[in-house]
Amino acid sequence: MDTTQFVIELTDKLAWPLVAVMALAMLKRPLEELLPLAKRLKYKDLEVEFDQVLQAVSRDAAGVFPELEQDQRSRLIATVKHLPNAAVLEAWDEVDVAAETLIRQQVKDVDLAVNTRYKTMGAILARQALLDTKKVKLFHELRQLRNKVAHAENFSVGPAEAVQYIELCLRLVEHLKTISDTAAESDSPLQAMS
């Protein structure tokens, strides 16, 4: 076998592995950015559910390393970088939970399992004078923005807007919790506490 034949054979054998290595080198950065977003990875018999495993590990780590515990604001702001729409929806969930807690504390036998849950909640907050007019308006405006993110096709929020939305939601949540805590301390329904 002469040198030319040897080079051709070697090139033939190494062509696909070299293409694969070059492709991995070129795609390294995009793959690194996508990997944290992956919820499941399967290769032969190995299957990993990142989301479930990560949640369990995070809970365990929080008990061992208290400094790893993040407040809600920090966690939401960290989510904004890669998933601003998800951060907006999570921030609204905080408003939803705080508003429902206050409403259930103040209004007996209320049905919030309706198609217009958030409108109903806003109406109850206004009708029972649990929030003043400006805060009820803020509740409805935040709800409408949340609905755009959740339901409008191809609607995307920028990171700066997501952070601003989160800040407004968390202020409203804090206010709702303050009212709820005050009512729990007095152990009687509130009237016009806003």
How far apart the termini lie comes to 91 Å
Largest sheet: 2 strands, antiparallel
Name the helicity range: over 70%
What top-tier CATH class of the largest domain fits best? Mainly Alpha
Shape: elongated
Total strand segments: 2
Q: Given the helix and strand composition, which structural class is it? A: mainly alpha
Strand content: under 5%
Q: If you consult CATH, what is the topology of the largest domain?
A: Four Helix Bundle (Hemerythrin (Met), subunit A)
Q: What value does the average pLDDT take?
A: 79
- Order of H and E elements: HEEHHHHHH
Strand order of the largest sheet: 1-2
Count of DSSP H/I helices: 7
The fourth-level CATH homologous superfamily of the largest domain is Nucleotidyltransferases  domain 2
Task: Describe this structure as you would to a colleague.
The chain is mostly helical. A hairpin with a 2-residue loop joins strand 1 (40-43) and strand 2 (46-49). The relative contact order is 0.10. The protein has a two-stranded antiparallel sheet with strand order 1-2. The protein contains 7 helices and 2 strands; from the N terminus they run H-E-E-H-H-H-H-H-H. The protein folds into 2 domains: 3-64, no CATH class; 72-186, Four Helix Bundle (Hemerythrin (Met), subunit A), CATH 1.20.120.330. It has helices spanning 3-34, 50-64, 72-80, 84-106, 117-127, 133-151, 159-186; strands spanning 40-43, 46-49.
